[in-house]
Design goal:
It contains 2 helices and 2 strands; from the N terminus they run βαβα. It is an alpha+beta fold. The longest helix has 11 residues.
Length: 86
């Protein structure tokens, strides 16, 4: 069974969904704090989780800023799932 909850940024703060394993960002946030709050819905209370982002060419700069902000490299993938060339 696949369960999906589609929400706006209104749910980025203050909502607790136990056992949420994945967050998918359809529109990449322009502010890093918002990314952290959105992604923070997963991996709560010692659980593991994954945050995925769908990024348009116009949003790549925000993704690079996030990588610097959190101190981790991002995994670039092209539409076909292969490694994208930067």
């Amino acid at each position: 069974m696949i369960r999906v909850l589609l929400v706006t940024d209104l749910a980025a703060r203050g909502i607790d969904i136990p056992l949420l394993e994945n967050v998918i960002h359809y529109d990449f946030p322009t502010k890093m704090k918002l990314f952290i709050h959105r992604s923070g819905r997963t991996a709560r209370a010692g659980q593991s989780g994954t945050s995925y982002s769908i990024v348009t060419p116009e949003e790549i700069g925000y993704m690079h800023d996030l990588s610097i902000f959190v101190g981790r490299k991002h995994a670039d993938r092209s539409e076909d799932g292969s490694d994208a060339q930067n």
